[in-house]
Amino acid sequence: MNNKEILKRLYKSYTKKYLKNIILAAFFSVTLAASTSAVAYLLDPAINELFINKSETLLYVIPFLIVLAFTIKGGSLYLAKIIMINVSEEVKKDIQIDMFASMISADTQLVDGKHSGKFVGNLMNDVNMIVNLISTAILNLFKDSLTLIGLLSVMFYQNWKLSLIAIIMIPLASIATKVLGKRMTKVVGEQMQRAGVLTSYLIEIFKNHKLIKIFQKESYERKRANDFINTLKESSRKIAIVFVRASPIMETITGIMIGFIIFVSAKLIMKDELQVGNFFSFLAAMMLAYQPVRSLATLNLAVQQGLAGARNVLPIIDDTNLIKDELGSSELNIKNGKINFINVQFGYSSDDRKILDNINLEIPGEKMTALVGHSGAGKSTILNLIPRFYNINKGEIKIDDQSIYKSTIHSLRKSISLVSQDTTLFDDTIKNNIAYANLDATQDQIEEAAKLSFADEFIKKLPKKI
Ligand SMILES: Nc1ncnc2c1ncn2[C@@H]1O[C@H](COP(=O)(O)OP(=O)(O)OP(=O)(O)O)[C@@H](O)[C@H]1O
Ligand SMILES: [Mg+2]
Q1: Distance, CA 224 to ligand 1 centroid (Å)?
Q2: Fewer CB within 10 Å: N-end or C-end of the chain?
Q3: pLDDT (0 to 100) of residue 173
Q4: Which residue in 60, 63, 57, 28 sits closest to 42, CA to CA?
Q5: pLDDT attached to residue 196
Q6: Do domains 3-318 and 339-414 have the same CATH topology?
Q7: Which atom of ligand 1 is nearest to the CA of 109?
Q8: CB neighbourhood size of 348 (10 A)
Q9: d(C-alpha 286, C-alpha 277), whole Å
Q10: In a 10 Å sphere around its CB, with 0-12 CB exposed, 13-18 middle and 19+ buried, how is residue 125 labelled?
Q11: Does the 3-318 domain belong in CATH 3.90.1150.10?
């Protein structure tokens, strides 16, 4: 997907339904721009009428208007931000729900091929970047460009010569932010990648803590963790420093601009081409324009990050399952559970070597069958094929003479139970763990299952017994 397609897709799937709210935020951006410009404009009559001409009639009017302008400015910004906070949290939730739904029903193949930590990173970090793009970036684009237009109008109204000088100098400021912005993109990307590595590592550590203990690799892992944490620290430090570096550069540039403007203004005032009031109003507008210019110059950063996030997230959401019901598949009808493998050929990836080649098996029903073989012989692989965790390349698998590929996946998996060697419990009540296969199980059925598995004794000893 190219950038335009990604943006279109994000708009259609996630932003469109909040269009009304966004338009409302855009409206508050207009009032924000108008009131900010009014603040700068009002300095002109304040100085010329009140300070120089000492007008009694305007003594109360102008200060009141200034208070009003600031109040509207603050209120507009507040409301626009609140609206966008609500939109972004909604969008974030929507994307995360879609991602989870896609991840939970993804083919085993896809989940195998990616570290679980990466999924966590996608769900937590990348989504934030996308949301930042469609909320903060959109709002900033509205409010900063409108505010800038308003302030430029005030500047030109006060004096066009000074305005031209300022406009020539504004790119100077934005070049500096742009350079820093580029560096920022680099360090932020680096940090995200490192944070992802650390997440994956932590998940691995907790999964394998027994292995680490038996091989006594605590100090080795501590060293590895130190390295990960240190590199992460290094990139966080870099980001913070790049941010701070912006201020001395910007302050110096601002100083140069203001100094030069004062020099030119003094000349204009001496020639009676400019009044003191106009000058201060102009200066205020120029200084107020600093924030939107800077914000617009770094807008690209948020956009690039959001696009990068979307490039990671959208493929997960859009992933289509290869393992799905064939057209016209029917319910699997179990009689005694005989399983046949007929000329089965299978490899974990299509181009890879064949793990199973031309396998023919008959596993009789109503009997206990054990598969015995060397490690890596393919026992687990054979088991994985029966509930269709993977599709075979060639051949046929039948249960009670019905092809599993012509049966619905639901009826197939309903007829199979899996007790994995590595038992896991969900972080939930024991009751819910027992009832996992059948969430509608009654209390009696659950207690019965607990008794049959000899779990009831230890459950009774627990403080809450659930
Ligand atoms: N998810 C996977 N992706 C790619 N190759 C795999 C995957 N799982 C297993 N294999 C490969 O398939 C082959 C058969 O592995 P399988 O796990 O079926 O053996 P096994 O007989 O169950 O071994 P063990 O007794 O150790 O459990 C091995 O060569 C293994 O490396
Ligand atoms: Mg195995």
Answers
A1: 28
A2: C
A3: 67
A4: 63
A5: 83
A6: no
A7: 1
A8: 15
A9: 14
A10: buried
A11: no
Query: Which residue's CA is minimally distant from atom 18 of ligand 1?
Result: 378
Mutate to test the pocket of ligand 1, among 348, 356, 359, 422 (most ligand atoms within 8 A of CB): 348
Q: What is the largest CA-CA distance in the chain?
A: 108
pLDDT at residue 305, rounded to an integer: 86
Which of 380, 386, 389 to probe ligand 1 with, by most ligand atoms within 8 A of CB? 380
Is 340 within 8 Å of 126 (Cβ atoms)?
no
Give the 3-state secondary structure of residue 269: helix
What pLDDT sits at residue 38? 97
Q: 10-residue block means of pLDDT along the chain (466 residues)?
A: 91 94 96 97 93 91 96 97 95 96 92 84 90 90 96 96 87 72 79 85 88 90 93 89 80 86 94 93 92 84 88 92 92 95 90 86 94 91 95 95 96 90 78 86 91 86 80
Euclidean distance between CA atoms 337 and 371, whole angstroms: 16
Concatenated DSSP letters of 316-371: HHHPPPSS-PPTT-B----SS--EEEEEEEE-SSTTS--SEEEEEEEE-TTS----
- The protein residue with its alpha carbon nearest to ligand 1, atom 8, reads 381
Question: What is the residue extent of each domain of the chain?
Answer: 3-318, 339-414, 430-461
For domain 339-414, say whether CATH 3.40.50.2000 is its number: no
